[in-house]
Design brief:
about 160 residues; mainly alpha; disordered C terminus
Length: about 160
């Protein structure tokens, strides 16, 4: 189901469809619950508690962040890097602009509170910490020291580079 998900750009509608499908699968796996002499379907809140806040959409965003680090680490003369950095000059299509992968990943990093992400890519240990935070169940912004970003915190984390 998620083959090549690191290359996807998801609209809100597509994210919702993935979450609905995920809940459908969870309901099938966990089954209905029996209480007070009747069977009841599990609520969305119960399913979220059982999955500990993890979701396919968060996993996909983490995979995209990981792929961004991989692409930035590739040598400049390699074909994937050339394709990633190349800017095409052509007339804009009519209608709404299509989502761009790079912009989506940068937005994901902004939500995480990561500034100047190119500085973090050079250090694999720091980047791995950012990727693990991107795949964590809940993203929340709290102030942290620069050295603390790799320490796991329960549902709380933010990555910032020192401003110069």
């Amino acid at each position: 189901m998620s083959y090549g998900a690191e290359a996807w750009t998801l609209t809100k509608k597509e994210e919702q469809a993935l979450l609905i499908f995920e809940r459908k699968i969870f309901r099938r796996v966990y089954g209905a619950k029996y209480g007070n002499g009747e069977w009841k379907s599990r609520t969305n809140l119960e399913l979220e508690e059982m999955s500990k806040g993890e979701s396919i959409v968060k996993w996909i965003k983490g995979q995209r962040i990981s792929s961004l680090g991989h692409l930035e680490g590739i040598e400049e003369d390699m074909m994937p890097k050339k394709i990633f950095t190349q800017e095409l000059e052509r007339a804009r299509r009519r209608g709404r602009l299509r989502k761009r992968w790079k912009k989506e990943v940068e937005r994901d990093l902004q939500v995480l509170g990561v500034r100047r992400w190119r500085e973090f890519v050079a250090d694999r240990k720091k980047w791995k910490g950012i990727v693990s935070i991107g795949q964590s169940p809940q993203w929340a912004v709290v102030p942290m020291e620069e050295e603390e970003y790799t320490k796991p915190r329960k549902n709380l984390c933010v990555i910032t580079a020192t401003d110069s």
